[in-house]
């Protein structure tokens, strides 16, 4: 109402809550620290997992920062920014989601004493931005390229990156097994950007080791009618027909309205129906295809018809699977069976229907265009397989990143220590208070190795001292936490590698987020979004609004 009378002045409603100033910055920092504390213990190969169960009774066990943050249902407005950066890290590079949250929170934690002492956040922000840029630059300088290696070499290097990612996960015990599987899958799809060309199918039961990779497509046997049993279950070099039509008898009469005046004509309608379906089936057979897949139903009549002619068929194949079959076998999905020419038929070396655990699977392998791969995951509990899938997703993303950018940095906190050292050295050359801020930024980077130690039960102070000493000596740039002995080791030599882009993105996002949170000194809570009492009394607005306006004016002046 008030806004209608005086559109140029924004007055705040009764119940609007504003808090501002230094206390607000500090309280935001505290909220972010609290959020980071929940994911803190998941970092690294010895990190713990979190079991989250939601109000619908769903249970998720995860080690993935982004997944945990998403499920936590955070309501604090500033802390939500951390959820966003975890999510963007996940979609941008796929790994380093815990890292990014920890870094951002640590940058803020280091800034807190300064804010409390009355340092203006913008001095801090300026120094942080510079330090962040220098850090990213340094990572780029230190990154080692894996370009120009032979395929075999490249494969083993990529497998090492994948293994590093997997080592912190539930399936870490079998990391070599899964790492090579992931590398094969990623190399199979080549440069194609469609991630869904790698299918992951989950079949409960068996052990992790029973998981396997299909160089092609695999999907669960679809619902089938009688007659299916008589169809052959294995073909060599079959032609494959992909359809998007129903092959069912009943479907015909629903396509048109029929009026009869003479009951004797009814038989001719029935005959016509049979003729139409037989005509369709006949055309399928004539196309020369040995396998017929359809996104829609294939009825009992068709199933029996195909069985009699030694043809395999599957109806109600999901859109995704059908597209993958099309991509892999070089076929094209048809919406009509008229004029099926040879070019639209797909082919593969072997088609087989196989038993996997309790399920039957249709497996197409040795596909000509080779641009698909399917990982069939086995394991005990559902939650376990689901976490395995998420972990594999991380590894797949990492291998793809490494393949695209092909530079890696040593993990285990080595790169973080090296950048920290570099920034500290730089800080010494700065005159003025900015020196302290850059130093704090450098110190915050140490959170990664420190947390890796804490999570593994090592003496973090001791290990960090050793690391600082080693890095300061000038020849220990690759030294990081040795997760097996509790000492320090050359991460590069131990093949604890991470794609450089993970670190660059993490530092960038964490710096941005912390600067963003530092720059917020006022939160205004709109009562309407809190409760349904939107119709607040207009009379009380003036005082409230005045207060808020004063706050705004003050901030404007301070900022210049
Ligand atoms: P994020 O979600 O950030 O990827 P992770 O739980 O995957 O968190 O942990 C990643 C961290 O663990 C990285 O800093 C990586 O260098 C480190 N790391 C992974 N494997 C090892 C290892 N074998 N030894 C030491 N550090 C490792
Ligand atoms: Mg990881």
UniProtKB/TrEMBL annotation:
Gly residues bias locations: 542-551
InterPro entries associated with the record: Chap_CCT_eta (IPR012720), Chaperone_TCP-1 (IPR017998), Chaperonin_TCP-1_CS (IPR002194), Cpn60/GroEL/TCP-1 (IPR002423), GroEL-like_apical_dom_sf (IPR027409), GROEL-like_equatorial_sf (IPR027413), TCP-1-like_intermed_sf (IPR027410), TCP-1_chaperonin (IPR053374)
GO cellular component, one term: chaperonin-containing T-complex
GO molecular function, one term: ATP hydrolysis activity
Keyword Chaperone: yes
Keywords from the named record: ATP-binding, Chaperone, Cytoplasm, Nucleotide-binding
PROSITE patterns the UniProt entry points to: TCP1_1 (PS00750), TCP1_2 (PS00751), TCP1_3 (PS00995)
Subcellular localization: Cytoplasm
Superkingdom: Eukaryota
Family: Belongs to the TCP-1 chaperonin family.
PANTHER family: CHAPERONIN
Described purpose of this protein according to its UniProt entry: Molecular chaperone; assists the folding of proteins upon ATP hydrolysis. Known to play a role, in vitro, in the folding of actin and tubulin.
Record text on subunit structure and interactions: Heterooligomeric complex that forms two stacked rings.
Protein name as it appears in the record: T-complex protein 1 subunit eta
């Amino acid at each position: 109402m008030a806004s209608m009378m005086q559109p140029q002045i924004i007055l705040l409603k009764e119940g609007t809550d504003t808090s501002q100033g230094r206390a607000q910055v500090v309280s935001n920092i505290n909220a972010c620290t609290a959020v980071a504390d929940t994911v803190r213990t998941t970092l690294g190969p010895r990190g713990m997992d979190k079991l989250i169960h939601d109000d619908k009774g769903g249970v998720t066990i995860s080690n993935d920062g982004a997944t945990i943050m998403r499920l936590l249902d955070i309501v604090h407005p500033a802390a939500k920014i951390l959820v966003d950066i975890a999510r963007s890290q996940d979609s941008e590079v796929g790994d380093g989601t815990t890292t990014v949250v920890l870094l951002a929170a640590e940058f803020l934690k280091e800034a807190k004493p300064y804010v409390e002492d009355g340092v203006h956040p913008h001095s801090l922000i300026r120094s942080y931005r510079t330090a962040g840029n220098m850090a990213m630059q340094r990572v780029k300088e230190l990154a080692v390229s894996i370009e120009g290696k032979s395929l075999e070499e490249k494969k083993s290097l990529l497998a090492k990156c994948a293994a590093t990612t997997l080592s912190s996960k539930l399936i870490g015990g079998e990391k070599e097994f899964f790492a090579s599987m992931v590398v094969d899958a990623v190399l199979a799809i080549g440069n194609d950007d469609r991630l869904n060309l790698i299918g992951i199918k989950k079949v409960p039961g068996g052990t992790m080791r029973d998981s396997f990779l299909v160089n092609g497509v695999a999907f669960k046997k679809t619902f089938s009618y009688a007659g299916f049993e008589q169809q052959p279950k294995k073909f060599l070099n079959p032609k494959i027909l992909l359809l998007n039509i129903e092959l069912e008898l009943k479907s015909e009469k629903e396509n048109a309205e029929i009026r009869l005046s003479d009951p004797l004509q009814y038989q001719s309608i029935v005959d016509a129906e049979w003729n139409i379906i037989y005509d369709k089936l006949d055309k399928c057979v004539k196309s020369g295809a040995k396998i017929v897949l359809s996104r829609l139903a294939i009825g009992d009549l068709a199933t029996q018809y195909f069985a009699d002619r030694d043809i395999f068929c599957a109806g109600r194949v999901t859109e995704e699977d059908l597209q993958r079959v099309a991509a892999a076998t070089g076929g094209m999905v048809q919406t009509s069976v008229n004029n099926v020419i040879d070019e639209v038929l797909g082919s593969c070396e072997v088609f087989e229907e196989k038993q996997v655990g309790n399920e039957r699977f249709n497996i197409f392998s040795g596909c000509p265009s080779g641009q698909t791969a399917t990982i069939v995951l086995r394991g005990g509990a559902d939650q376990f397989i689901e976490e395995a899938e998420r972990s594999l997703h991380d590894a797949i993303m990492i291998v793809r990143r490494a393949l695209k950018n092909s530079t890696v940095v040593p993990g285990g906190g080595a790169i973080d220590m090296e950048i920290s050292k570099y920034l500290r050295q730089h800080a010494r050359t700065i005159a003025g208070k900015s020196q302290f801020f850059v130093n704090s930024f450098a110190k915050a980077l140490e959170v990664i190795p420190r947390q890796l130690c804490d999570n593994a039960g090592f003496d973090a102070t001791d290990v960090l001292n050793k690391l600082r000493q080693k890095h300061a000596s000038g020849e220990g740039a690759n030294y990081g936490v040795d997760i097996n002995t509790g000492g320090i080791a050359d991460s590069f030599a131990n093949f604890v590698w991470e794609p450089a882009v993970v670190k660059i993105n993490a530092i960038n996002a964490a710096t941005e987020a912390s600067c963003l949170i530092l720059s917020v000194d006022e939160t205004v809570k709109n009562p309407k979004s809190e409760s349904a009492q939107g119709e607040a009394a207009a009379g009380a607005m003036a005082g409230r609004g005045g207060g808020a306006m004063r706050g705004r004016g003050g901030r404007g002046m301070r900022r210049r």
